[in-house]
Amino acid sequence: MTVAVITGAASGIGAGLARHAASLGMKLVLADWDEGALKEVADNLSTEAIAVPTDVRDEAAVQALALSAYDQFGEIDLLFNNAGVLSSGLSWEIDSTTWQRSVDINIGGVVNVMRSFVPRLIAADRPARIINTSSVGGFLTSPFMAPYSATKFAIVAITEAMVGELAALDSKVQVSLLAPGPVKSAIMDEHAPAQTAKFMTVMRGMNDEHGMTPDEFAPLVFAAIERGDYWIVPQPEILDS
Ligand SMILES: NC(=O)c1ccc[n+]([C@@H]2O[C@H](COP(=O)([O-])OP(=O)(O)OC[C@H]3O[C@@H](n4cnc5c(N)ncnc54)[C@H](O)[C@@H]3O)[C@@H](O)[C@H]2O)c1
Can you give the pLDDT at residue 240? Predict the structure, then answer.
């Protein structure tokens, strides 16, 4: 495996995946809408990496990302569809802008990446793997996080559909569903409304106390990819709790 594309690479899990991929000698295409943080991650990697500022909600920008990736490296082996956001609140009080933003990023962003990259990966007619990031929250609902739960359940559904579609096409491209448990990152930093402030403080505390670091988490993901796993659930014990 030589080239990986990672969305949401400026922080948390995406940045950890980038550092681990670099340590394996992979070349990298890193995308995020946080241009400054993205550049900092890319500049500190010990590999050839391009940083492409991209808002995954913007289909044209994601198409441009795919063009940049193929122009630079000619082929892609791994595609981490990782960018995501988490909002909290009472499901009936979360405003429509916040609901729409979760849908646009967590579902629309993943679909934009698939739309831009999958036809090119299939046309290349060589083995490649797409890793769509859901969450353990894509199997278990949580109160106060309805937009997150709903969009992460959707990623499980979309990814399962892709498995059948790629198999029907007899493609060499495969897909995995990544469902992280707690990993220390910025995902819970979004301002919480008054009703959920206490809940989010508890959640952040649990992540700080029990969460893996992105650099502990990334090797587990790559080990699962190496095995060819469809379900990548590095912390399965969370599903039993
Ligand atoms: N950290 C956890 O405990 C955890 C658990 C389960 C699932 N996840 C999932 O892992 C993925 C990575 O999250 P993380 O925990 O590293 O969070 P994070 O906030 O540290 O990183 C997410 C990155 O995505 C980027 N991003 C957000 N919206 C974007 C957009 N529209 N366009 C481009 N980039 C955008 C952010 O700028 C950020 O750099 C997310 O999909 C998240 O839902 C995280």
Answer: 87
